[in-house]
Design brief:
- The protein folds into 2 domains: 194 residues, no CATH class; 151 residues, no CATH class.
- Helices cover 33% and strands 8% of the residues.
- It has 13 helices and 9 strands.
- The protein has a 3-stranded antiparallel sheet with strand order 7-8-9, with no helix packed on it. Strands 1-2 form a two-stranded parallel ribbon.
- A hairpin with a 4-residue loop joins strand 3 and strand 4.
- Helix 3 packs antiparallel against helix 4 and helix 4 runs parallel beside helix 5.
- The radius of gyration is 22 Å and the shape is globular.
Length: 368
């Protein structure tokens, strides 16, 4: 994937992660249990200027103009080492990595961040990313999907040593076609054992099932995972599908209907595959994806597979990589943690933080 993007300008990338930076503690723990043992995982990108990241961010935000912010960050002393959560010690920021994959903190230039632009709270993270890349002297592959994000801002943040090449691409051209491609048919591939494991793991996280013993959780049926609100929403989805199927335009086949139970169809908010033939968005903390024809939800293992992760043996064999295990007994990560990671991997720039890191590191060959 990265070779396809970077090869235009002569970069040849042999994939495997050497370093990763992740602010969220849960995602950081997932990285430390998924990546190779020699991959360093750091926390806050602002640590390049010292351990007191709160003060660094406040000082940058308080500057009136972008020029002042940039000048301040270039005056700040840069650290060469940071605490590594993989090795439980200080490790150097510089590594054998030939290319850094990064996604700018773009919400300040989108509706999510109210288009606050240069006055937004995320600018320090971009300046820190530029300072860190400049300090370790590595090439950078920058991925951005917000059209309003200014390239000249990245050029200023990363400094004069970089020569920039811009290329506008469709997501499918750089390996992100899994995020929103139409799925004309819905195929379930989980075995009865997969269903039992998924229900058991998810049952431990459901509030209305708290207090059940492990033996009782093992006997649960998928329908019992739904709380009262979700059961009503599923019924509303089914009724809406039945009504829509009578119209000339029609809807998807009953066997292909997938409904997101985190939304409220009775209030007019629907996320379903009836019209678009697209799997509802895999949000950061999304609800269950119900498939009424099958009488169950889409398993976490199936959702990961829909995003291109080799969670089933045939997929791993076809890619010549080890199997990606969704449930890792020793990782202390819950079902909801993994669901959050799956939602994160659907955001295009996050490929450098989660998706590419994990997938690339499944390869046992020496790489990036």
């Amino acid at each position: 994937m990265l070779e396809a993007s970077a090869g235009t300008h002569g970069l040849s990338i042999d994939l495997a992660s050497r370093t990763a930076t992740e602010f969220d503690p849960t995602m950081r723990r997932l990285l430390t249990t998924s990546l190779m043992a020699d991959c360093c995982v750091f926390s806050d990108i602002l640590e390049i200027w010292g351990d007191d990241t709160t003060s660094s961010q406040a000082a940058i935000v308080q500057c009136c103009s972008f020029e002042e912010k940039l000048l301040l960050t270039r005056r700040l002393a840069r650290k060469t080492h940071g605490y590594c959560f993989t090795h439980d010690r200080l490790c150097p920021f510089a590594s054998e990595a030939k290319v850094r994959v990064q996604g700018p903190p773009c919400p300040d230039f989108s509706k999510i961040g109210s288009r606050t632009g240069l006055a937004g709270p995320r600018l320090p993270a971009l300046l820190a990313a530029g300072a860190k890349a400049d300090a370790v002297r590595s090439a950078v592959l920058l991925l951005e999907n917000v059209p309003e994000f200014p390239l000249d801002l990245a050029e200023a943040a990363y400094g004069p040593r970089y020569t920039w090449y811009g290329q506008l691409q469709d997501p499918s051209m750089v390996g992100f076609e899994c995020t929103a491609r139409p799925r004309p048919r819905a195929l379930l591939c989980g075995s009865s054992h997969d269903v039992k494991e998924d229900v058991f793991q998810l049952g431990q996280q459901r509030q209305h099932l708290q207090g059940l013993r492990a033996g009782d959780l093992l006997q649960l049926e998928p329908a019992q995972l739904l709380n009262l609100h979700e059961a009503k929403r599923l019924q509303a989805y089914v009724e809406a599908w039945a009504a829509a199927s009578m119209r000339p335009s029609g809807v998807c086949d009953w066997e292909d209907l997938v409904c997101h139970l985190g939304d409220n169809p009775a209030a007019g908010w629907k996320s379903w595959s009836a019209v678009s033939n697209r799997l509802p968005t895999l949000r950061r903390c999304g609800g269950l994806m119900a498939m009424p024809a099958a009488g169950r939800h889409l398993l976490l293992r199936e959702l990961f597979a829909s995003m291109g992760f080799p969670t089933f043996e045939p997929l791993a064999a076809a890619a010549a990589v080890p199997l990606y295990q969704v449930f890792k007994p020793l990782s202390r990560l819950t079902y909801l943690h993994q669901r959050q990671a799956l939602g994160n991997s659907q955001v295009v720039p996050q490929v450098g933080v989660f998706a590419a890191c994990v997938l690339a590191s499944l390869s046992e060959s020496v790489a990036l």
